[in-house]
Amino acid sequence: MASWQELAASHRNKRDAAIPREWVLPQDRLSQLSGAGTDGEGRLILLESIRRSGLLTDEEFAITEHHNATSLLRKISGNVLSSEAVTVAFCKRAALAQQLTSCLTEVFFQEAIDRAKWLDQYLQDNKTVVGPLHGLPISLKASDSFQVKGHHATLGYTASVSRQPSVENSALVQLLLDAGAVLYCKTNIPQTLMTADSENNIFGRTLNPHKTSLTAGGSSGGEGALVASRGSPLGVGTDIAGSIRIPSLCCGTYGFKPTSSRVPYGNQVPAPFTKMRFPGGITPCAGPLANSMEDLDLFMSTVIGKRPWKYDPTALDIDWRKIDFGHTKKLTVGVLAEDPEYPLMPPVKRALDEAVALLVQAGHNIVFLPADEASSPGLGGRLAGQFYGLAPSGYESKEEVTGEPKVKSVALGVHPYGKAGFPVDPELDLAHRVDSLAIARDDFARAWQHHWCDRDLDVVVAPGCNTTAVPYDTYGVPVYTMMWNLLDYPAGIIPFGKSSKAVDPNPRQAEGQFEADYNPDAWDGAPCAIQIIAPRFRDEECLAAMRIIDKDLNKS
Amino acid sequence: MASWQELAASHRNKRDAAIPREWVLPQDRLSQLSGAGTDGEGRLILLESIRRSGLLTDEEFAITEHHNATSLLRKISGNVLSSEAVTVAFCKRAALAQQLTSCLTEVFFQEAIDRAKWLDQYLQDNKTVVGPLHGLPISLKASDSFQVKGHHATLGYTASVSRQPSVENSALVQLLLDAGAVLYCKTNIPQTLMTADSENNIFGRTLNPHKTSLTAGGSSGGEGALVASRGSPLGVGTDIAGSIRIPSLCCGTYGFKPTSSRVPYGNQVPAPFTKMRFPGGITPCAGPLANSMEDLDLFMSTVIGKRPWKYDPTALDIDWRKIDFGHTKKLTVGVLAEDPEYPLMPPVKRALDEAVALLVQAGHNIVFLPADEASSPGLGGRLAGQFYGLAPSGYESKEEVTGEPKVKSVALGVHPYGKAGFPVDPELDLAHRVDSLAIARDDFARAWQHHWCDRDLDVVVAPGCNTTAVPYDTYGVPVYTMMWNLLDYPAGIIPFGKSSKAVDPNPRQAEGQFEADYNPDAWDGAPCAIQIIAPRFRDEECLAAMRIIDKDLNKS
Lengths: 556, 556
Fold this sequence. Notes:
Chains A, B: Pfam families: Amidase. Chains A, B: Residues 86-367, 441-543 form the Amidase domain. Chains A, B: Its EC number is 3.5.1.4. Chains A, B: The active site is at 141 (charge relay system), 219 (charge relay system), 243 (acyl-ester intermediate). Two copies of one chain form a homodimer. The first copy, chain A, contains 19 helices and 13 strands. The first copy, chain A, is an alpha/beta fold. Chain A has one domain (1-473, 480-500, 536-556): Amidase signature (AS) enzymes (Alpha-Beta Complex), CATH 3.90.1300.10. In chain A, strands 1-3-2-6-8-7-12-13-11-9-10 form an eleven-stranded mixed β-sheet, sandwiched between helices. A two-stranded antiparallel ribbon of chain A has the order 4-5. In chain A, strand 4 and strand 5 form a beta hairpin. The longest helix of chain A is centred in the C-terminal third of the chain and has 26 residues, at 430-455. At the A-B interface, helix 16 of A face helix 16 of B.
């Protein structure tokens, strides 16, 4: 049997070989593009590194830079652009993003281009599209929920490289293909899937395209970096603790974690790689990352419009409701209270305050929610952490298969879910622990239902984290995202502003311990974001409110 | 501390004392009304025992006999009938049903009549109703999910009698009150809630009003007997294995088990009485028993129209969809294959065959589903049985509190869920057992999803059980209902025909072992029924199809 180093190297080489040679730049050119040695080093987006590479034609640049997924679909179905041209453009841009940020794991560009040609021919022959996603390239996280026939689902473990490629498509993959999508790559993740640093021993670390010295987030970090680099018009991630929303807020993209099981998650890689799902615990879910609100809507309405239950019996058979609040609707927006245990860092606090000020200015009704322990992010995070711990065997044990070492973020254990004390006695036998956790979750849900109903809220606005993207391996416990997984509330990320050492030169004079020390220099240029949340099954209302808020904040 | 006998007697006496003396008949008069010593002995409905009692005025008889809940609501809101008149009529009829079938546990007629007067005054003063159930009497099963402030939730255990009465209303109870309902009684259940004989040491055994020598079914047996006696226009039961559908089919009423958590089930009596619910296991659900399809619709649309999540954070916040197939829609109806391990008894087989023949005649598309093990009632029942066994402590242990004995159906263990062999190794530790059961359930769900999608079914028609109501303590394992709890599919019962020794004098010459021996004499006169099923969350389609089928079968 090969060593883990050999397995990793051979798989990495396979990926690299799938990128056409003419799209590969020499290392010194890449350094130059990323601004090595200059003040702006690693600020790939600010430096327009991809445009400056000169590799994209003007049309390819326009396709990738000046459209969103929705407008590309219109152009393809209207015969203004071919799927082939769009697919080649995104493959090329993804190849560049890969070289600059190390965001890809599986690369199947040629297969994608062949399919795009077939779809173009189909449209020409039949004068109709295959489905609502006809010809659109879509990227997929390299997680266990996205098997693509003929390709690996590595999950960031060298042990998985020696497994055979997938023999069938996952439910969502098949649904996307039936809708006409073109799949062309998978994207990087952390070893264990449970850190906010997308690093593993096969593919290395994904870098943040806004500033390569910062984490791209995780676990859908490859998607975050790829979508932010506009190497994908629409990416699919998964989220059990924040894994869609963390890379979104780190990389400055839009992201949406739906209510679980509305988007199909079934037909995963077989056990032992599926053990994170404990029945009755916290259900992971799939959802989109994109560069516009319109494209989050596109993904959700299209996927659910295909009736996912037909693909996956574990998906909920609940129709998508067409909700349009219009542009004049005034929302009642609750503002989540800061948890003193997880104080907001200066740029995060400023972004939230500015967002609230703009919402007031736009005429929305703002309600500041009380800071009570019963509904606090800290309690939500601790309960979620204990739920994750119910799984019969964790990912941790799988390193042993090949003897590969833990990557730093895993070894550090930066996710000490129970650090503030377990809300439920961890010594209880499993049955009683499950029962007590379920009761505690119901209590937490009741506290939030009261917040909602007593104030007749439309949505809650909250930080997505108490930090922005941070230097490698220092991302804290993501309680501000985890709490909504515990509640199974839909929650989305809207990018809003930037961290700036000029505007926020100093730490806040907040009480209590800081989870991470604020470093104005290190964080300068990192995207800021807000999180918008609605009650369980109110995904439609959540997105409709996000569109209004996005307009008011980003004038988009 | 009082003995269990003392506790039971005092509570029974309290119930009896709540029935006005002028509504109580002497024992010999009751025997006479139930036909004691005649050929028709115990056939209360056939003998019109309640009408013959002479206790009801003509108006009270008309109110209870010739209306359904929907038409009563129209008359009350239209000032044609007062809520007081309707409430008094049903209290009186319920008092008679209690004396004839022993169906009640808690009686609060006076409170109900006072509330009805208040509602009448409200309507007079405000020219508008309190809500969509304004003035309608509704009966509730005496289960843990229905706490009514000031009254006991006994659960059929003498130990619970020494507990204090409920201090708050359950979520559904509060919702019904907010909608304008009048609550006036609770109804009998089995000790343990897990047999089909509604007998316990406090209230004794509920008798079947069609034939008192047969079980009324369980666990909502009191509701079945009361609704069939027309002592309630609308009853609420609960169902984790068939507990709404079994009494419905035994007593000849309509009944509906919705997808779980659409009707609120929260705010139950505190542990240790809630241990049947294992997170991620099979979720019990509340639903209606009534004398018409229209009233099942009324209950579901009204309850979900009140947005149950506002009352109960564990309720799913999914709107009720108005579905009306109209009268001309031709359905595609799958016919469940008989499980040879649970062969259909002659009247059950005949009712199903006749129903299918009428559906064909009405122009519907009938598809006979294959008999495969992967989707069989037997496998569904065995898996469900193992899920029930996950609960950390069963009801069984609670007898020990007062030393009361097990009633016969519990002692017999007529529900040997695992008798055909456990589908999942019962020696596995809990975590792996839960995991394996979840996977097995997903496989079962996949088999059913294929049945559905491959044939584009609207609904499935099936027996509700392989028997009708049977003599006391002989009801078999209810796999034909349990399988839909495992899948969490909505399923309803439509009464259709009767067991008849004249038509079916002999057992079928079926292969294999018979769960219960067919006894043409004992079963003669028992109601027959069919069960209609739709996929999870398709409650609206299930009821809409049931209305069409009911019209075609019962010309109602």
